[in-house]
């Protein structure tokens, strides 16, 4: 792999400690590379300055695409290309189209959002994702610094002073 | 501010709203009505059912939340408790209608005409004779008194235990445990009996027609109106400086409920419509035939107001958190569901009035005019009556809120609610 990074990271026992540490880092303008937690922590995103995800805009577009595909598709098939009489109803029977239009809207929106999410995050079959420390998938909370942008010694002292019980470095 | 102070100005405002309602109802009765006073009685039924249902749903959702061990709603639970207590006035209002039905003072329900139930008699109605085991004045009166009485009784228990919690004397949460028992009891009781009352109060105005999911559809309509009124009440109280602990997070969750249950209502509305449209059986399609022929504008406006607008406006995250957009949707949806009840009730009542007049020797009956004041669309008198009932509901609810602490103190889920975050 070409893009090796030298990482310094600290592990915390508690999410409250982690939130306090992230707040301190923000006040001191220390550049955090990323935070890893076993579960989503309320209030972490604004502290890290992460903007709202735009995935739902994609979801709306995919959903609208599904609506149009289903509705126009059925209209063309059942009213124009091969008109069939079902139960004495007109060829273009809008109420009968609505359930399928709804289903295709949901299908397009959900599949579209999953695929977009995987592509943007570089996920997929066969992709190796280095885990910084196995304990972050269980009960430990981690703040990581990239030594290319943050001085290693100051990162370590920051981690220890904010209550990290273990500080390590690693190349990924 | 821990207690809600009901100021004289607010009381005067609500009382003048009630006075407006009374004037509108008196004007309807004396000046703008037919010989049977169908317009007056149908307005009375329309608003009584609408606001009784809102009280029922407030209690239902409160009890569902208690049963589900939910915590987020606790800071503003006094609003739902106060709404739920309105059931006692709902009982009085529905009792007036039930007694009117018992003594044939109004002609809202075709099945109440006993002369059509005698075999061989002129105008004998075989279908209604077959339904007389349920559609009769005793069920109407007894069901109203007993069922609404039970709902109200359980609401008073839940409320009393909730106030008892505030004293902070039960370290072992015994009040909350007892409250949970009442809440669990309320859910199946209110669930089944409210369906029966919907059939009697609302669905039986189209007495030949029936739909098995009508009670669900009506319940969803009540529920959305209840959430809309809750949002507006909380916003008003926050503007007055109360409810400092109720944050945007709580408002956001109420907005989600408004959004989700608007879609749920649409789902039920459409399920009912599509099955009837597909099967195309005359005795079922008559319900929609009537509304599509004579109420075309209201019929489609109902869908736009109660589905398209809340769906498109509240879809985004931030529109549920901003007061402007959320209160706008809450107001139009509240009015929209009032309109939905108008559409459920008025066509059937007008038809019954025509039948009753034809029975009396007049030349009405089938094919009679539909462009009747107060029946073709809500007029000023209908809106004035609605404002009167709304002010009565709010006067009662605010009085109930002012009787005790506005924010509870010792609810076991209080901390969870104070730190609610979505």
The CATH architecture assignment of the largest domain in chain A turns out to be: 2-Layer Sandwich
Report the strand count of chain A: 4
N-end to C-end Cα span of chain A = 9 Å
Q: Overall 3D geometry of chain B? A: globular
- Number of folding domains of chain B? 1
Helix content estimate of chain B? over 70%
How far is the N terminus from the C terminus of chain B?
26 Å
CATH class of the largest domain in chain A: Alpha Beta
What descriptors fit this protein?
heterodimer; A: 172 residues; alpha+beta; Alpha-Beta Plaits; elongated; B: 422 residues; mainly alpha; 14 helices
Quick synopsis:
The complex is a heterodimer of chains A (172) and B (422). Chain A is of the alpha+beta class. Chain A contains 5 helices and 4 strands, in the order βαβαααβαβ.
Structure, described:
The complex is a heterodimer of chains A (172) and B (422). Chain A is 48% helix and 13% strand. In chain A, 17% of the residues are buried. Chain A is α+β, with helices and mostly antiparallel strands. Chain A has 2 domains: 6-38 and 139-171, Alpha-Beta Plaits (2-Layer Sandwich), CATH 3.30.70; 55-120, no CATH class. Chain A has 5 helices and 4 strands, in the order βαβαααβαβ. Chain A starts with 5 loop residues before the first strand and ends with a strand. Chain A is elongated. With 422 residues, chain B is mainly α. Chain B has one domain. Chain B is globular and about 70 Å long. The two termini of chain B are 26 Å apart. Mean pLDDT of chain B is 92; it is low at 363-367. Chain A binds chain B through residues 42-43, 52, 56, 60, 87-89, 95-96, 98-99, and chain B through 270, 273-274, 277-278, 280, 315, 317, 421.
